[in-house]
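Database export, one record per block. Field names are fixed; values are copied verbatim from the stored entry.
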Amino acid sequence: MTLILYLALTGLLVAFIVTFLIMPYIIKSMKRRGIVGIDVHKLDKPEVAEMGGVGILLGVTVACLVLFLGSGLIGIGFFDFRILIFLVVLLIAGGIGAIDDLKSLGPKVKPLLTALACLPILFYTWTLISLSLIPPFLPTYIPAPYLPFLGATRLTIVYPLILIPLAIAITSNAVNMSDVFNGVMPLTTLIMFVALLIVSLFMMSIGIPEAGLGLLFSSVMIGALLAYYYYNRNPAKVFAGDTGSLLVGASIGAVAIMGRLEIMAIIALLPAIMNAFYSLVSIGGLLERRQMRARPTVFQDDGTLAASTDQNAPITLTRLVVARGPLTEQLITLSLATLTLASSILAILTVFLIPFFPGVIIFWPFSLFLVIVPLFLVLGVYLVLRKKDHLGIRLTGLIAIMIGVWGLGMAGFALLDYLISYYQSFWWPVVGIFFVFGWLTLWHFSTRLYFRFEMRNSSLVTQTSS
């Protein structure tokens, strides 16, 4: 384990140094070629270099090549080709993003193409199986994701053919849809990767070898994103573009699959998934930003953003945050980072609800204790942020919804585990599907009610102040 920790630290440092040093040249190159965007959330509307994701990709590429060589020369004793597979997934996702930056692919084509980025993960393992090369070579995925209360669940066909393509498509496009403010994408994904790194360390300590990949890849992404954040923080010198947001999102999906961190990654990514879910449901389908009939927020003359009152505007996470009243871009970034921190804490707590080995039983009083912890999380957020434009009140409501989504999901897993244990039936997958449908419906309506409540409070505050 000591060697893999050294490799992880090396990957982090290499990714940071390369990304940090190459980014100024990327910025100059993009500006010289006229590949720039307008920072619409600034009063003077400055031009900012686009496609900064190229710098992230270069940093990750060099770091992965160093890790690949290190795995054979000083690491695990043989060259681990899974590291190269991870890199190829990111190269495909970044390439799709670059094409979209230069020539728009459309809102329906892009998710389909990003799903294809999973093909290296699938073909590598299928090739090893067909040639009987396992061992000595190791597969890029194991079709038995760890689930709360249920443990390793065998999904031999569904996992590779449906869940893996969905994982890459959803994570890449969820991060892409949330990359709308200076510093938001690198800051929120940094928090997620730190959570996945912590979970990977725990899983390695109890004997889950695949978690070592989660540790290595999370370290590489942390290094690259730390360097990129320096240039993307407010006021931004560069935007990642779809090149960056798609490859960073795809990296979350790849880390989840290859490191067996599926459920923890989903929970850590919950704010971005919530944002995408709210947008898709309120719009009624996949649309580009320019195709929307109304924007979710309105940029005001004082430099703040307010929630749109247009009924056609989509409900997004940002619109929910500013529903009570206008906020500056910096405070919105802080709000989204706080929500991601909360979801990442829930992801870390979730790992303690998983029986990783047969015969292990989750201690129920302990699991109930873990449900109490999020309540203190809500209280802590309120106390720390209550004086910053009522951020405490704004965020506690959203965190409460997120905890409710998480809690209902955990309760569903526990119920399914109980039913499977005591009642044998082939209907349980159907029951699970109906539970998910009901869960999403409740999530949707609770969010709409919360949004109306916040908008009503906003109007009351306005009337009182006037």
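Remark 1: The radius of gyration is 22 Å.
Remark 2: The CA atoms of residues 125 and 139 lie 5 Å apart.
End of record.
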